[in-house]
Amino acid sequence: MIVHLLGTGSADGWPNPFCRCQSCTSERAADRTRCPTAALVDGCLLLDAGPTAAAAAGRFGTSFAELEHILITHGHPDHLAPDFLLWRSWVNPGFTLHVWAPPESLNRCRDWIGPNDDVLLHPIEAGEELTLVTRSGDYAVRVLPASHATGDGDVLAEEAVLFDVTAPDGHRLFYATDTGPFGAALLDQIRGRCFDLVLLDETFGTKFDHGHGHLDLDTFAKAVQELRDINATTEHTDVVAIHLSHHNPPTEQLRAQLFACRARIVDDGTAIEVGQRPIRNSHHFILGGARSGKSHFAETIAAKSAHVTYLATGYPAGEDPNWNARITAHRRRRPGHWRTEETIDLVAEIEGAAAGSCLVIDCLALWLTRTLDDIDGWSTDPQVSEMAQKDVRQRTTQLIAALHNTRAEVILVSNEVGQGVVPETSSGRLFRDLLGVVNAQVAQNCRQVTFMVAGRAVPLVELTTVRG
């Protein structure tokens, strides 16, 4: 099962185009836009069809050319903009499109179907079990009750549903947007389902006086725990927050808060290969050359956290006045309430970190240097050098394992030393090659990687699954 998230935002998107709040301003500065939530499953099944879904499919490298079924949760305009059905009639794909939606929502589609277009409308309600036949296999769908109504007589909200989708490959998705806290009936129906992927509403963030037609950060965390308590999720379930609005803190802060309850966010356009082990951390790897601004950038990110431990891997102050001045400048730059540890035992520090805290490791290049010193890794004896390289690889593996298991946020800084000339000395070549290996493995196991150039932060492609 491959799920393309065509949108992860709420009705007004995020940022709201009319808003100048800190959250919206931050997202604009990051050049990040979230459109109304919709998801395309295996190219043949669409979950919700809001006003931006069709355009997003093209923008993110897919299309509706193979679309055979559409499942609509309810008829609010951000989840159903039926005019795209008319566009299909202009193409005549040559096979049937089935639209499944609650009755009032389905009525919104009728005037948009071309007179000769092969589109079939199917009314649904909570409690039904469907079999969606496609050319690539059958999808089993259970229609589940949402808690979207707020008592104001909104029929479209009152008939809202959620979907439990099992793909032909056996992977199972719980699509739960536009719902408030779970009711007993819903929990009974999903008990023991062991979903592989959960796409869960988290609209209101830190706004807690909104009524219960959606989830906020508190009720989202409670919902995630309820899913865990009834074995609807397992330790391998990928829980992704969707239907996000500007009532949330900026993405980087939100990412850390969701990490505390073992959930995550992804950008619009993300393709999730269900069954691949997701990177669950909120770690950030910052790479750059000397004086590129990488340490300052790491400290700026860490400053958003309340509890920060700075792991300084460099040599302690000694007789070198230049080195001592550098250490002093770094210390003065850090907030007074940060805890500083001068150590290269990174694994112990990561394993001992409290959930929700933040560690800054500055930097991996000095960690490698001191590690090679400790294990006599600079030796020109080929046998000794080979043993040292094996030791470094083992320590790197242990570091990666600690990053996977910690519930703290870790910001790692390292030097990029592989873009210059080949070093003249064997020790220089050894250091360059080993640091390249360390950097690559750390980067492949962090949610975000940033390359620093002349003080400018260049974000690299965000990963969604563990590689290697």
**What's the CATH H-level superfamily name of the largest domain?**
Ribonuclease Z/Hydroxyacylglutathione hydrolase-like
Number of strands: 20
Query: Outline, from the CA principal axes?
Result: elongated
Spans of 5+ residues with little confidence (pLDDT < 50)?
none
Structural class: alpha/beta
Q: Mean pLDDT score, rounded? A: 90
Number of helices: 14
Which percent range fits the helix content? 25-40%
Question: Strand arrangement, largest sheet?
Answer: 6-5-4-3-2-1-13
**Global Rg:** 25 Å
- The CATH level-2 architecture of the largest domain is identified as 4-Layer Sandwich
Quaternary state of this entry equals single chain
Euclidean distance between termini CA atoms = 20 Å
Largest sheet: 7 strands, mixed
* Beta-strand content bin: 15-25%
Top-tier CATH class of the largest domain: Alpha Beta
Please indicate the count of domains. Answer: 2
Verbal overview:
By secondary structure, the protein is an alpha/beta fold. The chain has two domains: 2-273, Metallo-beta-lactamase, Chain A; 284-459, 3-Layer(aba) Sandwich (Rossmann fold), CATH 3.40.50.300. It is 30% helix and 22% strand. It has 14 helices and 20 strands. It has a seven-stranded mixed sheet with strand order 6-5-4-3-2-1-13. A seven-stranded mixed sheet has the order 16-15-17-18-14-19-20, sandwiched between helices. Strands 7-8-9-10-11-12 form a six-stranded mixed sheet, covered by helices on one side. Helix 12 packs across helix 14 (426-443) and helix 13 (382-405) packs parallel to helix 14. The chain is elongated and about 85 Å long. The two termini are 20 Å apart. The relative contact order is 0.10. The mean pLDDT is 90.
